[in-house]
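Chain A, query sequence.
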Amino acid sequence: MEKHLDRVMDDVLSNPGVTACVFADHQGLCLGARGKASTECAGMVGAIADQAAKLEPQHKSPIIIFENDTRACIIQRNGTITGAIFKNI
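Chain A, predicted structure.
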């Protein structure tokens, strides 16, 4: 799985404007991080996905987007893995 995740992270970072990505397991433990992202944010990313799922229980995996003037953070859970993509806007 590690090689597959490495390939996915490389693919994500190859997209225009993407500066970082982080992947966490269902307990918030970091599975991988690339770019300008800290492995320490994996737990927070997982917790945010958990809370968003409680707001929309009829939807399996809501997409959460945080934006400021220059960056966006996009978070989504797929099964037991949560991913966050950070990009310039």
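The chain is about 30% helix and 40% strand. The two ends are 31 Å apart (CA to CA).
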